[in-house]
Amino acid sequence: MILVTGGAGFIGSHTVRALTEAGQECVLLQRRTPQIPAHLADLPIHVVQADVADLDALLAVGRQYPITGIVHLAVAVPWSVSDTGPIEATGAALEAFLNIIRAARAWSVRRVVTASTIGVYGFASEGALTEDMPIPFGHFHAIPTFKKITELLAGHLAEVTDVGIVNARISGTWGPGGHLPDPFFAAPSLAHAAAQRSEPDLSGLITPPHAEDALDLLYVKDTGRALALLQLAEKLHHSTYNVASGRATSNADVATAITSIEPDFHLDIPSGGDHPVSWLDITRLREDTGFHPRYDTAAAAADYITWLRAGNQR
To answer: Is the entire prediction scored with pTM above 0.85?
Structure first.
């Protein structure tokens, strides 16, 4: 039985679906409600209301269910510091990660898969990014900064405990249930505009986009399946894996894919930009789990737009 934190969320819900399709029972840890989320109501899952920051409540889950694996996707970055202050919020976020490892050790869990991010590589490199390349340790955003810290902690804790900890460096992910706007890339906003037959609103991006701006984009159904494969693989030879498509996808590529579905769609953003083009090498993931993306850009755009036009909101 696999415990999934953040299992009702964007990537988490698709991971839960992939795990159940692989024959696994899942337990979702939810902070706000004990109810099964409506978008997962068709699955044979269990829900426990508890906060990962509450060790006693977390350990109680293992007394109720025979947990054999953990996929830790709950947001554990100190976003909000208004109530407790930045130092306390950071400490609580770190404690939440440590609680997952404490619980895994108490339950004799074989493997914890924890979410990291493409952002740990920074944005100055060009070409294929491999897991063993040096990563920059300068701070530029809370998410990659915190993920670098937890990756280092994971390496230490895996060495001094009997818990296998796998860092999944997840690439730009889009699709049903995703963020709108996503502050880092335009694809979700473009899909929404096409579904509504309206002009794209790209004002929510951190930096103004260009047609040639590219990122390793992975459709969320593939992301969830890759994470499930990492959890269920009989043997893994590494502690860090890129979860990605293995290719760079530009805004122009997304627009071209959308135009094949919605011929009147037009992307009116400037050419240019000086961002280096890079992508995540997925050799490790492919060799150790057999993962291959099932959705190229055209298939992803078609599936996402169909989902949106069916009355879904994100």
So the answer is: yes
